[in-house]
Amino acid sequence: MQTHHTLKPLQRISAMLIRYTYLLRNSWPRILELAYWPTMQMILWGFINQFLVTESSWVAQAAGLFISAVLLWDVLFRGQLGVSVVFFEEMYSRNLGHLFVSPLRPHELIITLLLISFIRTVIGVGAAALLAIPLYHYSIFAIGLPLLAFFANLLVLGWAIGLFVISIVLRYGLGVENLAWAVIFAVAPVSGIFYPIEVLPHWLQPVAWSLPSSYVFEGMRQVMIENSFNLHLFLMAVGLNILYISLGILTFLAVFRVARIKGLILNAGE
Amino acid sequence: MNTTLNPDTVIHVTNLCKQFGEIRAVADISFQVKKGSTTALLGGNGAGKTTTIAMLLGLLLPSSGKISVLGQDILSHRYRVLERINFTSPYVDLPGRLSVRENLNVYARLYAVPNRAQRIHQLAEELEIIEFLPRPHRSLSAGQKTRVELAKALLNQPEVLFLDEPTASLDPDSADRIRHYLKTYQQRTGATLFMASHNMVEVERMCSDVIIMRHGQIIDQDTPAHLLSKYGTSNLEQVFLEVARHGS
Question: Can you tell me the ipTM of this complex?
Fold first, then answer.
């Protein structure tokens, strides 16, 4: 009989990362799809940006305002999908039973999902950002260090939403998987991606200010138009993200327990 | 949970119940499984076999009762046990887009199997799946998948192997080879096999103990020979039909 080792969490997390890398490697349409949508969005908003620069004094204040906005929005969008779609793969393939009879802990699966989401987002949005340089002579990387702060905050919010989505799908089954696409679009109008929050009706503004994404996009405009990094906006985004990612993790762990009570793990995917 | 059980007992179930709303899937069952034995859980559809196995694995939380596997309370110390057990079930599958080798490699890493490549090759040879290693799992037939999933279940050389319908999708020749392989594995390692099966010939050939379930309850538990004698029948299929239709 095999000698039993104290299995290390990092080994299990790397095993799962390898599993998702295999999945990407074995399917070139998946790799293409990672970059396709962010690139199409960037191209569309790049032309809109070019047009509005000549028509709007507000847009003219900063080159590439809309390109930056759409690329950062895609960080949030892809961050969320990176968690949810990858988890759905386990449900489609009815693999959850095998995974949770192995020594893999639920929190290790969460860490893996977040890491793979980061990798997918960097590939997808990174390709689109690089393509914007020859296409529109605009580099989002010119934003400098604040770009890292914006990227991190939007990615973490994407993770939090992704964790809520997979919790709901684990609880109610793949019949509600369209939530993965729908939920994020409810966040978009109140995040001030392309316009200041003050444009929103007064009653909707508190909703906007409860989202880290609103602080990020306001902060992005301040950096691009006024050339100043607003620390207050950054800290508000960080504070709210800590709250939401904690709630996302706790929700998933709670639903995982419910799934064990209701026998949903063996039936997942059916 | 008493962790100083008889060292010969690897599974100890006490007053186990599982309720799904109004439905009582498992109703106050208790049993013990000895180390190195092969125990079959017999019963018709909906008897509670898969629910019981899912609770033994910790995939499903019981409504009440206690489960000890390898001396550990599965409810509070599940992760001390998981690296020492494994399972196959027709209710779960491996990722279809990954090749067989990739799937086995991922699970070998999850179980921290030493000399992964060697272990995978050894199992692939023994279970005659070498030619399938580079192929996507989804491209295999049901019987081929069964053998691959058995290889996955044996990667960590489990001390207790849970098998839910282990030969359900196999032709008679393949099923016979698998049964022979499992017996050889058990003799070599001293592992305990715990299986749910509808295949009475398989149970008669492989099992030293049989637990018969009906409507979530244990109707009878004994050796195959004693059951045949008790029910006055010549084979377990007749015992199964007797119990399924009339109870104990």
Answer: 0.89
